[in-house]
Design brief:
7-stranded mixed sheet, single chain, 12 helices, 5-stranded antiparallel sheet
Length: about 425
């Protein structure tokens, strides 16, 4: 039994954590209820039928189930239209598809949240030498860094008032950085200010890890296009592949033409028998996100009480995504914690985690991902670049109970080596 391997002191602390977190758990439950209502209402409004789960092959013409699914995603995300496809293989792929559809030679894009997530840097052309990068396609890139975790509003508005920028990108989650994730309220405020000086620039939000954490999405806040992965929140731990792009109808038409071909757009794309897992995934997503948030709040409480540094968000801090970070202070602690998460995973628990290179990342990585779906970060996982200050990024947890067991075993591994 996993519980028999956990330090008894940590088990006692876990009971204290549940008492301390009672009100936070209750607030998470209220958000889950609200978002569950939104999801169920969208299903009923769109008359989802058992026949919508049919396996469509070949060209994928006339797939009413796929079309209903995309209407449901658009409604939940506060958008006019959406693409939800197994052909979109990851969040990174969804971002690349969107960038390449909307940006042309001579266009300028600006990241409003500083240096983007590591895997995006090569697609932009900030690292690597890919002939397919935006830079090599003649797209100009700029970035405006956050200042004390806030948008540099004055600089952003001054730059966009020139009206020579095609697209701005907002990364909602922190990525591999120490800055805080962005709330919908802050995103809405900035979008409103941008529209006062420039009503033409496309506003894109990388929504990965943030879906259904709050009661609204970036589409409700005025974003033109919202992008994410089904191996994260909106897949509910059930979707085994896929990604989504939602937004203004004309923008989605452009992205669809890039995905398939001009003149075909959204009309083709076989579902490879994925419709049922996509429908069930979004249906279960509010509960999966609730479980992940409770697991991460518990993790933060334990880490803080054990004296770890730079725990973010703090256990009682407002959350806008499912990511928890902690500075572990040494390579040894980083590896041990990650190994503990892997050892308490349902899949590949026997795998011994060690730092290794990973495609798309500039440093060796440690990654615990004993998941039913490879790369599914709504399932409990932990990963980090093996560089100082050895900050670990933890996310997910399909149930609070599974999350708690894995986190306690990981902490036991560290405690035993102290």
């Amino acid at each position: 039994m996993i519980k028999d391997q956990i330090d008894s002191k940590l088990l006692t602390m876990a009971e204290e954590a549940d008492t301390a977190l009672k009100d936070i758990y209750a607030e998470i439950d209220r958000t889950c209820m609200y978002n569950s209502d939104r999801v169920l209402s969208a299903f009923i409004k769109n008359n989802v039928s058992y026949t919508d789960f049919a396996d469509i092959n070949g060209y994928g013409n006339y797939d009413e189930g796929r079309d209903k699914l995309e209407r449901i995603f658009a409604e939940i995300l506060g958008c006019e239209d959406a693409l939800v496809r197994p052909q979109i293989m990851s969040g990174t792929n969804a971002l690349w598809l969107t960038f390449s559809a909307l940006l042309r030679h001579g266009d300028t894009m600006i990241s409003l949240t500083g240096t983007p997530y590591d895997s995006l840097q090569e697609m932009i052309g900030l690292s690597g030498d890919s002939s397919q990068s935006l830079k090599n396609a003649g797209v100009k890139y700029e970035q405006i860094d956050l200042v004390n975790n806030e948008f540099d509003e004055e600089r952003i508005l001054s730059r966009l008032a020139k009206k020579d920028v095609k697209l701005v990108e907002i990364q909602r989650s922190r990525g591999y950085s120490q800055r805080k994730s962005l709330t919908i309220a802050r995103i809405r405020h900035l979008i409103q200010k941008i529209r006062e000086v420039n009503d033409e620039v496309l506003i894109m939000v990388d929504n990965c890890y943030g879906e259904l954490v709050e009661k609204e999405e970036p589409g409700h806040a005025g974003a033109d296009v919202v992008v994410g992965s089904l191996m994260k929140n909106l897949g509910g731990g059930i979707a085994s592949t896929g990604g989504y792009i939602a937004g203004r109808r004309d923008v989605i038409e452009m992205v669809a033409d890039r995905l398939t071909a001009p003149g075909i757009g959204k009309e083709q794309g076989a579902n490879f028998n994925q419709n049922i897992s996509f429908f069930k995934g979004i249906y279960m997503a509010p509960g999966a996100v609730r479980s992940a948030l409770k697991s991460m709040a518990f993790c933060a409480w334990m880490l803080e009480k054990l004296g770890f540094h730079n725990v973010s968000p703090r256990w009682d801090e407002y959350r806008t995504d499912i990511i928890q970070t902690v500075e572990l202070g040494s390579k040894e602690n980083l590896v041990r914690f990650t190994q503990g998460i892997q050892n308490a995973s349902p899949i590949d628990s026997f795998v011994h985690i060690l730092p290794a290179p990973m495609p798309g990342y500039p440093f060796d990585e440690v990654m615990a991902a004993g998941c039913f779906t490879q790369g599914s970060t709504i399932e409990l996982s932990a990963d980090a670049p093996v560089i100082e200050p050895y900050t670990l990024y933890i996310q997910g947890g399909l149930t609070p109970e599974y999350g708690k067991l894995s986190i306690l075993l990981a902490l036991t591994r560290i405690e035993q080596e102290q």
